[in-house]
Design goal:
5 helices; 59% helix; elongated; 128 residues; mainly alpha
Length: 128
């Protein structure tokens, strides 16, 4: 109790302000943390990297936790996209080896050069 009144959970206080109010988007995130949707983990980083993260966090007016989480999210998204691209290329190569159907680079270049012009064309047909 504070000043004779029972204090409330700060998240519940923010939640009372309702959707669209400042901080509401964070309520959902904090609620999920409390409910266990996120896993706690730790990272061992050297003092130099720790200082760099802290400096960047101060410059961005964010917490070091936010900076590290953002870096991990961006890295994972980039690597997932890279892996997806690689798998698509491998599937294309397998399809080419199986069927022999393809376009030459000149055919693709000619087609792409029509983009944005009055003579824009559809994709050319693959051939053997």
């Amino acid at each position: 109790m504070r000043d004779g009144m029972r204090t409330r959970n700060p998240i519940a206080c923010l939640a009372d302000s309702g959707p669209g109010s400042p901080g509401w988007a964070n309520i959902t995130r904090y609620y999920h943390v409390i409910k266990g949707s996120f896993m706690a983990t730790s990272l061992k980083i050297d003092d130099t990297l720790k200082s760099r993260v802290q400096r960047l966090a101060n410059q961005r007016r964010r917490s070091p936790h936010w900076v590290m989480l953002e870096a991990i999210q961006q890295y994972v998204e980039r690597e997932e996209a890279r892996e997806s691209f690689k798998q698509e290329a491998l599937a294309s190569w397998a399809a080419y080896k199986e069927t022999g159907r393809h376009l030459t680079s000149q055919e693709v270049r000619t087609w792409l050069n029509t983009w944005g012009t009055n003579d824009e064309r559809g994709a050319p047909e693959c051939h053997k």
